[in-house]
Amino acid sequence: MNLARVLGTVVSTRKEPSLEGLKLLLLGQVDAERKLTGSTVVAADAVGAGIGEYVLYATGSSARQTALTDKRPCDAVVMAIVDSWEIGGLELYKKGHDD
User: Fold this and answer.
1) Distances, alpha carbon 89 to alpha carbons 55, 59, 84, 85, 86, in Å
2) pLDDT digits (tens, 9 = 90+) for 58-74
3) Cα distance between residue 85 and residue 56, in whole Å
């Protein structure tokens, strides 16, 4: 799993029919201190994430193991919206506080 921030959405009017109905998000991978690493990815949204939220996403064959992405040509999927994280007892992020 990878940690990222939702940067925006991706719209595609022409696509493989099995991708119809999928919401696509543009994600910026972040480090533990919430700094963008420079890596971006387009991922199918399986959980209803919104712009600015921190999420966990999976890539590769794991991306096709959600109910929404099963048997679809997806290489990345958002599978969780992050509420908080801490390292060594120090809370580095809590949703709704200093987003």
Assistant:
1) 21, 29, 12, 10, 6
2) 998 787 878 778 888 89
3) 12
Q: 69, 68, 41: which is closest to 5 by C-alpha?
A: 41
Rounded CA gap, 85 and 32, in Å?
8
pLDDT in tens, 25-42: 999 999 999 999 999 999
Closest to 15 in 3D by CA, of 40, 39, 42, 52: 42
What predicted TM-score, i.e. pTM, was given to this entire model?
0.90
Question: Which tokens belong to 71?
Answer: 């048997």
Q: What are phi and psi of 62, to 5 degrees?
A: -60, -30
Q: Give the C-alpha separation, 90 to 72, whole Å.
A: 39
Full set of structural domains in the chain with CATH: 2-94 (2.40.50.220)
